[in-house]
Amino acid sequence: MAYTNTLTSVVPTLLAQGMMALRENSVMPRLVNTNFENLAAEKMTTINVPVPSAIAIVQVAPSYVAPDDAAVVPTSVPITLDQWWEAPFFLSDKDIMESFNGIIPMQASEAIKTIANKIDSAILALGAQAYGVAGTAGVTPFASDLSEITEARKVLNNQLAPLDDRRFVINADAEANALGLRAFQDMSFSGSAQGIVEGKINRKLGFDWYMDQNIPSHTAGTVATSWIAKTSTAQAINLKTIVTTTGGTAAMLAGDVITFSGQTQTYVLTAAASRSGGGDMSISIEPGLKVALAGDETITIKATHVVNLAFHRDAFAFASRPLADNIDGLGNIIKSAVDPVSGLALRLEVSRQHKRTRFSYDVLYGLACVRPALACRVLG
To answer: C-alpha angle with apex 214: 212 to 215, nearest 5 degrees?
Structure first.
């Protein structure tokens, strides 16, 4: 009975410690559009994230008949809570007692890091849906100047991203280059000495800056050099399915960034497409064609690259929900909590298994790239 009472008392402490550690180790959930509802949910529950629709300005014409505003239809993007992950571990009696003194046990700390890395990586992977591009594939940005920053800012401006709530998330290599630039060190540029004293960039040039070791790379697909838009099919503006043809082979991947000769606009493939031995192949792109194709344009794929990101908060959405707190009749101790800062919902379950005490943190979440126009890849 005494041991059970001890566990009952320690679970809230371990849950609170885990939540604080998860908040500190998870970078991306704090930077994107997060749904903060704390209602318990089950796997595969759907959350609808509202997305504003474009509104056309119209001339006022007083009349006894009210204007028809039916064209203004707010939309939403569904996010399915399909990600349910746990990080289990065992604690000794000594570890349990240490948690009462505010010390998070090493095993619990490692479990939280695992969850944090999983969530961070999942959100960062959404960057492969961004079609805006700055920088050069295979070249770490900020090696000598700020050109990649101003280029990314221009891309976001041209894609009509709001000026507020912009973030810049880079990997360790890019951060090392940035911190070596005078513009990131000198107080006369930044108004703060933290760049050189603490190694922190903070806010600069309209972005909040963060370093994340989980920044991914995108491995580019391949395409024959003779691949062109098919001449026999109209390739009109706004078209999102393009018919292409070649005498060679192709293995294009979702997330590939392509350009058409004669254009500077970049597009992203929304699905993989392949062809062996030549012939026609349809590819799906985002956004729709900005410039109509004549039919003889050559397709080029951006090379393999690191996907650093410059984006507005509303480009990506993340929703996390707590799971049920109790399972009647099974005798386990289960508690959950929602962090009001990061929006993360965390549950801790304690159970006795073969003369050992098993602890398990688990999370339920879903995520989506809801507005790819509000994001820009900064290639590395």
So the answer is: 80
Rounded Cα distance between 121 and 85, Å, is 13
Closest CA to 220 of 190, 191, 251, 192: 251
Report in angstroms the alpha-carbon separations of 100 from 19, 96, 209. Answer: 16, 7, 36
Phi, psi of 149, deg, nearest 5: -70, -50
d(CA 33, CA 312) in angstroms, rounded, equals: 9
Quick check: 35 and 343 in contact, CB under 8 A?
A: yes
What's the topology of domain 2-52+75-126+315-365?
Major capsid protein gp5 fold (3.30.2400)
Residue 262, sorted as left (phi over 0), alpha (psi -120 to 50) or beta, turns out to be: left
Residue with more model confidence, 334 or 192: 334
The topology under which CATH files domain 221-301 is Elongation Factor Tu (Ef-tu); domain 3 (2.40.30)
**Ramachandran sector of residue 61 (left: φ over 0; alpha: ψ -120 to 50; beta: rest):** beta
Instruction: Dump pLDDT digits (tens) for 250-294.
Output: 899 999 999 999 889 999 999 999 988 878 889 999 999 999 998
Long-range contacts of 195-203 (CB under 8 A, 24+ apart): 201/175
Q: CB under 8 Å to 65, separation ≥6 — which residues? A: none
Q: How far apart are CA 43 and CA 86, in angstroms?
A: 13
What does the alpha-carbon distance between residue 34 and residue 345 come to, in Å, rounded to a whole number?
Answer: 12
**SS3 sequence, 236-286?**
CCCCCEEEEEECCCEEECCCCEEEECCCCCCEEECCCEEECCCEEEEEEEE
Q: Considering the entire predicted model, what is its pTM?
A: 0.86
Helix (H, G, I), strand (E, B) or coil at 131: coil
Structural domain spans, the chain: 2-52+75-126+315-365, 221-301
- DSSP state string for 287-351: S--SS-B-S-PBEEEPPSEEEEEEEEGGGEEEEE-PPPS--TTS--EEEEEE-TTT--EEEEEEE
CB-side exposure of 255: number of CA atoms within 13 Å? Answer: 18
Q: Tell me the two tokens of residue 258.
A: 């392509």
